Amino acid sequence: MERNALLVGGAVAVVVVAAVTAVLVPGVLADPTDEGPIRPGPVDVTDVSIAAGPATGETVTLEIQSRIDHRGNPTQNVSVLVRAIDAESGLLATTQRVPVGNVTRDGETTATTNLTVPREGGYDIEVVLYRDAERVDQARRSVRGVSAIKPPYLQSTTSFTETEALPPVSFSIEDAGENRTTLDLTASLTNTGDEPADDLSVTFVLRQAESNIVASRTTVDAGTIRAGRTESVDAAATVPDGYNYYIDAVLQRDGVVIDTARGAANLNPTRTISVNETTEDVELRVEDFEDDGGSVGADEEPERTRTESAAPGFGVVVALVALLATAFVARRWRQ
C-alpha cells in the first residue's frame, strides 16, 4: 500500500514540476505543430526575351526581361545576374546584377536588365538566378546582327527602289558631242513610312570603270516624298565619250548617308560592264578627264596609260654583254 502511494506521489510530483517549468520557462516544451525552419519555395527562370533599346553609332542597349516563376513558401533575397558574351570571341562583354528581393506570392515576376554592348556582331545572353548566394537556375539566349540596329540619325523610311522594272539608278543620253556625252541621270526613291519625308538630297558620282577616276559629281535636292509614294530625282552629268562608268547614287538627310545604290553606263561599244563585274584592262587617256577640258595638240603624242604594268627591258645590257663575249672569244682564237 505504501509502495503504491509512493509511486502515485512521485508521478504527481513529476507532473507538478513539469507544469511549473512550463510556466516559468516558455518554450521548454516542443510545440507538436512546429515543423522547424520554413523551407523557401522554389524559383525558376521560365523565359528570357530580348528587345533593342537606344542605339548610337558605336553601341546599342539590349533590354532583357527575365520571367521568374515562384511557388510555395516565401523566398528571400532573390537576384538575377545577366551577362553578355561575344558570340565570336567568347569574351565577356558586360555584366549586371539586378536584385529582385523577397518573393512571396505564387506566379511569375519580371526582372528587367539593360545591357549596353558594342553595335557589332552577336551576343549570347546568359541569365543566372540566385537565392541568397546560391545559384538555383539559369537560362541562355542568343542575339545576332546587332549592327543592323541603327541609331536615330540613320533611321529612315525612304530608300532607293529595288525592283527590276524600276531600277534604283538609270540614265539616258541627253546630248552626244564629239568628245563629250551628257547623261540624264535618274534615281528612284520610295517612302515606305506613314509620314512625308523631306530634307533629302541625292549625290550622283560617275567613276570610270577601270581606273576609278571620278568623271563627274553632282548633288540635287530630292524635295518631299509623300508617304507610300515613289518619286524620281533627275540630274545631268557630262563625261568623256568612249568609256564605261559606274553611277553611284548616295541618299543623304542632313549630311548623313542613309542609303546607296549603283548603276552602270556603257559608253564604250566594244566593252561592257555591269554593277557586279568589270572586264579586262583598257587604254585610258588621262587628259580626257582634266577639269579644263583641254586636248592634246596635233603634233603631240597623246599620253596613254594602262592599268596593267610591264617588266623593264634589258636590250642595252644584253648587247653590251654579247659584245664583250665576242671580243674575248676572238682574242682566245688568235692565241
Report on this structure.
The structure is a single chain. By secondary structure, this protein is mainly β. The protein has 2 domains: 43-148, Sandwich (Immunoglobulin-like); 156-291, Sandwich (Immunoglobulin-like), CATH 2.60.40.10. It is 13% helix and 49% strand. It is built from 2 helices and 17 strands. It has helices at 2-24, 315-334, and strands at 43-55, 59-70, 75-86, 92-103, 107-118, 123-131, 134-143, 158-160, 169-176, 180-191, 197-208, 214-225, 230-240, 244-253, 256-266, 283-284, 305-306. The strands form 5 sheets. Strands 4-3-6-7 form a 4-stranded antiparallel β-sheet, with no helix packed on it. A hairpin with a 2-residue loop joins strand 14 and strand 15 (256-266). The longest helix has 23 residues, at 2-24. The radius of gyration is 42 Å and the shape is rod-shaped. The termini are far apart. Residues 293-319 have low confidence and may be disordered.
Structural class of the secondary elements? mainly beta
Fraction of residues in helices? 10-25%
Mean pLDDT comes to 80
Major β-sheet profile: 4 strands, antiparallel
Number of strands: 17
- CA-based shape: rod-shaped
Which strand order does the major sheet show? 4-3-6-7
How many structural domains? 2
Succession of helices and strands: HEEEEEEEEEEEEEEEEEH
Using only C-alpha atoms, the radius of gyration works out to: 42 Å
Distance between the termini: 165 Å
Low-confidence stretches: 293-319
Give the strand content.
over 45%
- Within CATH, the superfamily of the largest domain carries the name Immunoglobulins
At CATH level 2, the architecture of the largest domain is Sandwich
